[in-house]
Design a protein that fits this description.
The protein is of the alpha+beta class. It has 16 helices and twelve strands. It is globular, with a radius of gyration of 24 Å. The chain binds flavin-adenine dinucleotide. Flavin-adenine dinucleotide (FAD) binds next to strand 3, strand 5 and helix 14.
Length: 461
């Protein structure tokens, strides 16, 4: 296993990453990357064991319902790179048996890759979303044939891929990129049916980063983003060689969605788990700021908080149902129920803006305009800030200001915007969850109940 400092040192491996229009020669020295690297390193230290052959217990596939539940609750509290690595490895293990009928060599490669990645204690990013070009056209009919990642050359010992994967969480801060098709492929789209693992420092890989980490010297009034930001990567594959043993699908169009389906499930379970905590956090912020503003007993404020807590509790119920109704692969690995995972994730994403609307409505304009802690410390402005930002006995100005800063940073500022869109899009937009929900919903039963209520004889239609 790696220690945090070994992880940090491992990033100096010749990888080619960019930020704000310039190359980043030393990731650790880039201010916007310091906090996320530190968070990932802390995750390494937390689970480190010097025992020979030890592996991180959190990335081992759940073998029972209890283990699935336990992992789900801890995974979202881990740093994002570890959470995404868990999702990647579980995706590969869920996909492996489905690929054995296609070509047993894929199953063997998948299982040995998972073993090796676990042993080496590496972090992995999920690379599924292509540039996609004109959304109305399939990959093979795009104006630019590279709009979806594809194989451009086949060598005796591997393939060469070209294209780009966009929005990839933590791409610059992990070791391997797990590449897979983003959608179903048709005959004629064999070159686009490629799944493989690519080291970040492979020749031809370039990553352009974006981040909503606070910029500026005093990050104290960004209490959330200064700890939790994580760069997203625009990952370019400019004719990258991938050896055969890292190729898990190559040309089998009929199986192109195996990985995406498996990934979607684990990604949405992770998203849902985070949303459950996040929803309670928003309820807590609404209640605390209502109390600090002297409004906690007012009818319309209470109504809004009630709506928020009902939504938060239903999300928790959805997660419970997804875990309680888990299924097992033939190898005995447990995965959550598809229907409950997808409908609850859908609900969490679709209603997030309403939660934020209620919170902003309750909190007031200081969400945006509260002075900073620096203003409170400034001897010229501090006494006035203290005087006018406090509301009553027992509510110091600083405490109320910190609540406003947290609400702004989490929901109304640069990182808040990231948060809003991420909730909607990561793991696929709302439509992606609706498709899976419809596929797994028992429509026959619903129709049967409807026919009974209408006194219509049951027919199969
Ligand atoms: C912060 C963040 C982190 C992310 N992390 C990752 C990651 O780690 N790995 C990864 O692979 N991806 C990641 N994603 C990408 C995410 O999965 C995609 O943003 C999402 O799937 C939508 O794809 P898109 O952005 O290309 O939008 P589009 O595909 O353009 O979708 C926009 C809208 O158009 C609709 N649409 C698109 N095509 C069609 C069509 N043919 N017919 C009908 N409707 C259509 C969609 O349903 C949606 O409503 C991340 C996204 C964000 C914002």
């Amino acid at each position: 296993m790696l220690t945090g400092s070994e992880y940090t040192a491992s990033l100096d491996d010749g990888r080619c990453t960019y930020f704000d229009g310039r190359v980043v020669p030393d990731l650790v020295a880039e201010p916007a990357f310091v906090a996320p690297i530190r968070a990932i390193a802390a995750g390494y230290d937390l689970h480190y064991s010097s025992e020979p052959g030890a592996t991180n217990p959190l990335v081992v596939a759940p073998r029972s319902l209890a283990e699935l539940r336990e992992r789900a609750t801890v995974v979202h509290t881990m740093d994002l790179a570890l959470a995404v690595t868990y999702g990647s490895l579980m995706t590969l293990l869920t996909a492996a048996p489905r690929m054995s009928g296609v070509d047993p060599v894929y199953k063997d490669r998948l299982e040995s890759y998972v073993d090796e990645a676990t042993q080496r204690d590496i972090r992995i990013a999920e690379c599924i979303t292509d540039a996609k070009g004109d959304r109305s056209l399939p990959p093979s009919q795009q104006h630019d044939p590279d709009a979806y990642v594809r194989v451009v050359d086949r060598k005796p010992d591997g393939v060469v891929i070209r294209g780009a994967k966009l929005h990839i969480s933590a791409a610059s801060l992990v070791h391997d990129l797990m590449v897979m098709p983003t959608k179903a492929m048709k005959p004629g789209e064999e070159d686009y049916s490629i799944a493989c693992a690519v080291p970040v420092n492979s020749p031809g890989v370039r990553i352009v980063n974006t981040t909503f980490h606070p910029r500026g010297d005093d990050t104290r009034h960004f209490p959330v983003s200064r700890v939790h930001s994580m760069p997203d990567g625009f990952v370019i594959f400019d004719d990258v060689f991938v050896p055969d043993e890292r190729v898990f699908l190559d040309g089998e169009t009929a199986n192109a969605t195996v990985f995406a389906h498996a990934l979607g499930l684990w990604e949405r379970l992770g998203g849902l788990t985070a949303m459950v905590t996040q929803a309670d956090q928003l309820v807590g912020l609404a209640q605390l700021i209502a109390e600090a503003n002297g409004l906690a007993r007012v009818g319309h404020i209470r109504d809004k908080i009630d709506e928020m807590l009902i939504h938060a509790s239903l999300l928790r119920a959805g997660l419970e149902a997804a875990l309680t109704n888990a299924h097992a692969t033939p190898e005995g690995y447990y995965y959550p129920d598809e229907l409950f995972t997808n409908v609850a994730k859908y609900q969490g994403a679709a209603q997030f803006h309403l939660m934020v609307r209620h919170l902003h409505d309750i909190a007031g304009g200081s969400v945006l305009t509260s002075p900073t802690i620096g203003d409170l410390e400034n001897p010229e402005t501090g006494p006035f800030v203290e005087k006018y930002m406090r509301t009553m006995e027992g509510v110091p100005a600083e405490e109320r200001m910190r609540l406003f800063h947290a609400i702004r940073d989490l929901t109304a500022d640069s990182y808040g915007g990231w948060h809003l869109v991420t909730n909607l899009q990561s793991g696929g937009g709302l439509y992606a969850q609706r498709i899976v929900a419809r596929r797994h919903y028992d429509m026959q039963r619903a129709k049967q109940l409807a026919m009974e209520s209408a006194g219509i004889a049951p027919v199969h239609r």
